[in-house]
């Protein structure tokens, strides 16, 4: 079974072009699944029944959320479809199993004032602060995921035209406008920040730590947490909160859904439509607060 798991992960990497993070998630899900099957003395994947899988999902309910269970079920479905396609098995026991229904949670986002306070939090008197300001400006200007920001190369940015190029989920490439303010702080970083972090070394990466090391997702997360605290904001803010704020503020100001979908790199417009619920919720709150007959 372990060998088939490895073959499936190779397929995701080579044929599907998934990122390291996505493959790592698939790997963790499969480990849970295979470990459970072995504990139940199921040694062959063609012997797995629909009941075995539903029992596994019920077993998971003790410790993890419905969202995580839904993701693991998706992994199992893709795995068994791969086995069927490769003729390792002759049927798939999982196709008729429905994913648990998920509550649609409205993403947390920041007001324009809160975003501005975070953007102004870095200390521009040192190269790290100049870098952090440029990075925050890019994240809010483009809605890039933190993994996309950490993997940006020098060649990803075109300041003359004002665009940034990135690779999203499934290695899909997209181009997003930067805006004048983000361009300004990136130029500032190129002149007064990056050369000092680079020293005498050479790097193709855009955002660097001291000694020319590329910044990791974790270090960007820590930086944002620090800036949120410095800005005096009590909300739980993650790198994704800036992405949510980017989309929400665009739609509030009249941007069309398709354009926002393209900038966010969503494969389905259904995902982007979640942000329209934010606008409806806010409109209702405003109506309740100010209309004389709302209450």
What attributes does this structure have?
DNA polymerase, domain 1; 13 helices; hpI Integrase, Chain A; globular; 3-stranded antiparallel beta sheet; 295 residues; 2 domains; mainly alpha
What does this protein structure show overall?
- By secondary structure, the chain is mainly α.
- It folds into 2 domains: 84 residues, DNA polymerase, domain 1 (Orthogonal Bundle); 177 residues, Intergrase catalytic core (hpI Integrase, Chain A).
- It is built from 13 helices and 3 strands, in the order αααααααβββαααααα.
- It has a 3-stranded antiparallel beta sheet with strand order 1-2-3, with no helix packed on it.
- Helix 2 packs across helix 4.
- The longest helix has 22 residues.
- The chain starts with a helix and ends in a 5-residue tail after the last helix.
- The model has no long low-confidence stretch (mean pLDDT 86).
């Amino acid at each position: 079974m372990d060998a088939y798991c490895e073959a499936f992960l190779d397929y995701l990497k080579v044929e599907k072009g998934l990122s390291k993070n996505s493959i790592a998630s698939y790997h963790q899900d499969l480990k849970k699944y295979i470990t459970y099957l072995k504990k139940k003395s199921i040694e062959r994947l063609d012997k797995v029944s629909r009941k075995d899988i539903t029992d596994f999902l019920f077993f998971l309910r003790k410790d993890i959320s419905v969202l995580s269970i839904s993701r693991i079920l998706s992994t199992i479905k893709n795995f068994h479809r791969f086995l069927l396609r490769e003729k390792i098995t002759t049927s798939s026991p999982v196709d008729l199993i429905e994913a648990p229904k998920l509550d649609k949670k409205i993403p947390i986002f920041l007001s324009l004032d809160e975003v501005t306070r975070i953007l102004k939090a870095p200390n521009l008197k040192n190269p790290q602060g100049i870098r952090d300001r440029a990075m925050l400006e890019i994240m809010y200007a483009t809605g890039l995921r933190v993994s996309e920001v950490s993997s940006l190369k020098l060649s990803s940015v075109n300041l003359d035209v004002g665009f940034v190029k990135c690779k999203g989920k499934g290695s899909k490439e997209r181009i997003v406008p930067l805006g004048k303010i983000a361009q300004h702080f990136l130029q500032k970083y190129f002149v007064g920040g990056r050369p000092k972090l680079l020293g005498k070394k050479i790097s193709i990466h855009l955002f660097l730590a001291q000694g020319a090391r590329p910044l990791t997702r974790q270090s960007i997360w820590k930086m944002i947490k620090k800036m949120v605290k410095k800005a005096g904001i009590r909300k739980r803010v993650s790198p994704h909160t800036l992405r949510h704020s980017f989309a929400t503020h665009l739609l509030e100001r009249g941007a069309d859904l398709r354009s926002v979908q393209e900038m966010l790199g969503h494969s389905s417009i259904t995902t982007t439509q979640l942000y329209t619920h934010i606008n409806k919720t806010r409109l209702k709150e405003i109506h309740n607060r100010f209309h004389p007959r709302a209450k």
